[in-house]
Design brief:
By secondary structure, the chain is an alpha/beta fold. Helix content is about 45%, strand content about 15%. It has a 6-stranded parallel sheet, with helices on both faces.
């Protein structure tokens, strides 16, 4: 039995330069991409109550529109290049895992670093085995640690950018692309 991890698509998940129009739409300090989940909503509300502005992309957030002025609810699913633009445009990309699925990793766990984005994700053993904590990505266990790390990384731009770059390089040098994963499957079959 072999386990193949989530991967990134080299055609879409890569660093890009944003146009001036894209900058107006996607530049932000903190973003979260993903469908509504109660625990995600509670964590994002906590951040907003503590002065952190977050752009929230994904479906199912309509009940939270106008809920707090620091939560910029887009309530829109992102596809293709717009997904990449949102990652590239955000200084900090929050990565929440789906609790109902008991996720320990998600496709965004690989796609965010592959785009050259800084990822701040829920801490799991699976993710920390792939990305060195504080070197190629960073992680949190609870909303207090998340808040503390957001404040820290917004103040420490060079370290944040270095971590994002290291995460990108890790994706490039590891077997994390879809092409690499498919080649591994073919090799296994042969």
């Amino acid at each position: 039995t072999f386990l193949f991890l989530d991967s990134y698509d080299e055609r879409y998940h890569k660093p890009i330069v944003l146009s001036n129009l894209d900058k107006k739409k996607f530049i932000t300090n903190v973003s979260a991409i993903g469908a509504f989940e109660k625990q995600r909503a509670e964590t994002l509300s906590y951040l907003a109550q503590n002065g952190i502005e977050v752009d929230v992309w994904g479906n199912g957030w309509e009940k939270m529109i106008n809920g707090h002025h620091y939560l910029k609810i887009k309530n829109k699913f992102l596809y293709g290049k717009n997904y990449t633009k949102a990652i590239v445009g955000s200084k900090i990309n929050l990565n929440f895992l789906r609790k109902i699925n008991r996720d320990t990793i998600t496709s965004r766990s690989i796609e965010i670093p592959a785009c050259g984005g800084f990822m701040l994700s829920e801490r799991t053993r699976t993710q920390t085995e792939i990305f060195n904590e504080g070197v190629e990505a960073d992680f949190f266990d609870d909303k207090d640690e998340l808040l503390e790390k957001i404040k820290y990384y917004l103040e420490n731009e060079k370290q944040r950018k270095d971590i994002a770059y290291n995460g990108y390089k890790k994706c490039q040098s590891s077997n994390l692309s879809m092409k690499s994963q498919l080649n591994s499957i073919i090799d296994l079959i042969n």
